[in-house]
């Protein structure tokens, strides 16, 4: 097969930032994607419906002329979040999920949750009104090895929370382990998982072998190869519980190429080419549409997109810019370390 047409994809986990960075990187997403769940980890975080409304306006103002794109807003869960505010945001069609960052888990997560008892009233209301909780699934306990943080989170936080509140819909975001995949598969309801482009392609060697490679460092950190294989298996299976959330997370190069570099891979530019490669290699190109365009809307209770995109396999490798120049500095585009032959037709 050298050509495939699918419904226009959506990105169910995206960092757009604000200001000059937003302006610079938004076209990389709107070129191919119709909608995206927008992460709220700005400084300060998008914590209230009023914050989300004005952030949405800034995103909409930055959409390039001629592109159509719908930002699906989320709220950053803090111990001060008000259940009524969240419910109002959902009722007015603005808020599509609430994001849980365990305090300290990743970029701008210090305002996150330390004591779950404090957020139970909000979570109970969300369960009532059917609003999903998007979860950054890593514990932050210093004693826990960074490569075990997802597995320990499932056992000590996520599973107890789901037992306490079985009606709460939970999206386990950027799943990076076979443990996460198996946990989602074992659930009978109210649990789904997003998988990033880069975690389908790299394992931890990409970060550490042959010198330290900051552009492959993200959180949750990529794990060993057997986990990557489990992620590919889940993504290409067609199982409705797994869908694309790129976690494309731009940082200006100087903030990644330094002694304490930020976490995040920027994959917005070449995600669809990368995914077509991964799915073709797995003999599952026919499942790409389910992963990128069908399963996410079904989970979030939204219609699928009516437009389509066509991917074509070229004889010559497709070239992408190495960096996106933004008013906030250059952002390095994810390098999958193999030539890309699939391109989205204009
Ligand atoms: O790699 C990551 N980058 N993981 C996250 O959870 C946050 C994100 C960011 O905001 O840069
Ligand atoms: Zn993220």
Automatic annotation (TrEMBL):
Record InterPro entries: Amidohydro-rel, DHOdimr, Dihydroorotase_CS, Metal_Hydrolase
Catalytic residue list: 247
Modified residues (N6-carboxylysine): 99
Enzyme Commission designation: 3.5.2.3
Enzymatic reactions: (S)-dihydroorotate + H2O = N-carbamoyl-L-aspartate + H(+)
Details of cofactor binding: Binds 2 Zn(2+) ions per subunit.
Superkingdom as given in the UniProt entry: Bacteria
Residues bound to Zn(2+) 1: 13, 15, 99, 247
GO molecular function, one term: dihydroorotase activity
Biochemical pathway: Pyrimidine metabolism; UMP biosynthesis via de novo pathway; (S)-dihydroorotate from bicarbonate: step 3/3
Coiled coil: none
Assembly information from the UniProt record: Homodimer.
PANTHER family: DIHYDROOROTASE
Protein's name according to its UniProt entry: Dihydroorotase
């Amino acid at each position: 097969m050298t050509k495939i047409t699918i419904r226009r994809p959506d990105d169910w986990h995206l960092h757009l930032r604000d200001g000059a960075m937003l302006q610079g990187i938004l076209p990389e997403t709107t070129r191919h994607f119709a909608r995206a769940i927008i992460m709220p980890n700005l400084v300060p975080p998008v914590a209230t419906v009023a914050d989300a409304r004005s952030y949405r306006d800034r995103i909409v103002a930055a959409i390039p002329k001629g592109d159509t794109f719908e930002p699906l807003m989320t709220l950053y869960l803090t111990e001060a979040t008000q259940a009524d505010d969240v419910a109002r945001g959902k009722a007015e069609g603005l808020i599509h999920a609430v994001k849980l960052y365990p305090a300290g888990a990743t970029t701008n997560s210090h305002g996150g949750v330390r004591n779950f008892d404090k957020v139970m009233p909000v979570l109970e209301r969300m369960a009532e009104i059917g609003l999903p909780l998007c979860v950054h699934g890593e514990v932050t306990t210093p004693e826990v090895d960074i490569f075990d943080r997802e597995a320990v989170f499932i056992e000590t936080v996520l599973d107890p929370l789901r037992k306490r509140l079985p009606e709460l819909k939970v999206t386990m975001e950027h799943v990076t382990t076979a443990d996460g995949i198996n946990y989602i598969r074992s659930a009978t309801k109210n649990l789904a998982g997003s998988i990033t482009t880069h975690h389908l392609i790299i394992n931890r060697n990409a970060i550490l072998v042959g010198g330290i490679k900051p552009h492959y460092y993200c959180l949750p950190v990529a794990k060993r190869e057997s986990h990557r294989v489990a992620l590919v298996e889940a993504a290409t299976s067609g199982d409705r519980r797994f869908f694309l959330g790129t976690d494309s997370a731009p940082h200006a190069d100087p903030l990644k190429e330094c002694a304490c570099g930020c976490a995040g891979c920027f994959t917005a530019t070449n995600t669809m080419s990368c995914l077509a490669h991964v799915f073709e290699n797995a003999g599952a190109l026919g499942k790409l549409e389910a992963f990128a365009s069908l399963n996410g809307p079904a989970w979030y209770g939204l219609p699928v997109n009516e437009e389509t995109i066509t991917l074509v396999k070229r004889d010559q490798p497709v070239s992408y810019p190495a960096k996106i120049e933004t008013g906030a500095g250059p952002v390095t585009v994810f390098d999958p370390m193999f030539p890309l032959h699939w391109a989205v037709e204009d």
